[in-house]
Amino acid sequence: MKDTFKHQGMRQQLVEVLVNKGIKDHKVLKAIGKIPRHLFMDSGFIDHAYQDKAFPIAADQTISQPYTVAFQSELLRVSPDDKVLEIGTGSGYQTAVLLELGAKVYSIERQKELYKKTSNFLPKIGYRAKQLIFGDGYKGLPEEAPFQSIIVTAGAPYVPNPLLSQLAIGGRLVIPVGENVQVMTLFIRKGPKEFEKHEFGDFRFVPMLEDKN
């Protein structure tokens, strides 16, 4: 669980890569420059930790590409103390970014193996979500709604209605929508039944699956 000067230097190089790819939010860049991404990966992948690539983790899932994490985080426009719902805890890397941005994070993971691993791991490196939940992300978390932001970190074939309904007025849902290739989509809730939709190009995610494993 070491974080060396070498790792820190590699992180700064990664931040430069993200700036060159168009990420502008200083808070997001600062978070990525601070979080020891190599600790979220199996030791065999340490050399790859600060490349702008996705890598496999447990349960046939991946740790997202840093650019994708930064892109989604930037779209959310998180303010300190915002309640944020994350669908797909995965390795916990995106969770850590949200926590660095000052969010109160509620995160749902449907893979038991990953849920257990990440629930143990995040507090060990100083990241404490409000709640990590083993459950079905399609249902959201109605008992804690409304949320200022909701982020989905897996490709969704459609936009789950419960997630839209759990957004606060003015809230933002960032979700990759599509089957094989996903379009990064932002919904902003303008009123009880009114949503503004924006699309931001193609991304590739592991599929968002219903129910729990």
Automatic annotation (TrEMBL):
Protein keywords: Cytoplasm, Methyltransferase, S-adenosyl-L-methionine, Transferase
Gene3D superfamilies from the UniProt entry: Vaccinia Virus protein VP39
One GO term of the biological process aspect: methylation
Top-level division of the source organism's lineage: Bacteria
Enzyme class: transferase
Catalytic reaction list: [protein]-L-isoaspartate + S-adenosyl-L-methionine = [protein]-L-isoaspartate alpha-methyl ester + S-adenosyl-L-homocysteine
Database matches in Pfam families: PCMT
One annotated GO molecular function: protein-L-isoaspartate (D-aspartate) O-methyltransferase activity
Keyword match Methyltransferase: yes
InterPro entries: PCMT, SAM-dependent_MTases_sf
Compartments where found: Cytoplasm
EC nos: 2.1.1.77
Active site feature: 64
Keyword Signal applies: no
NCBIfam families attached to this UniProt entry: pimt (TIGR00080), PRK00312.1 (NF001453)
Role noted for this protein: Catalyzes the methyl esterification of L-isoaspartyl residues in peptides and proteins that result from spontaneous decomposition of normal L-aspartyl and L-asparaginyl residues. It plays a role in the repair and/or degradation of damaged proteins.
PANTHER family with a match to the protein in the record: PROTEIN-L-ISOASPARTATE O-METHYLTRANSFERASE, PROTEIN-L-ISOASPARTATE(D-ASPARTATE) O-METHYLTRANSFERASE
Family as reported in the entry's similarity comment: Belongs to the methyltransferase superfamily. L-isoaspartyl/D-aspartyl protein methyltransferase family.
UniProt-listed HAMAP family: PIMT (MF_00090)
Protein name: Protein-L-isoaspartate O-methyltransferase
Species of the source: Winogradskyella rapida
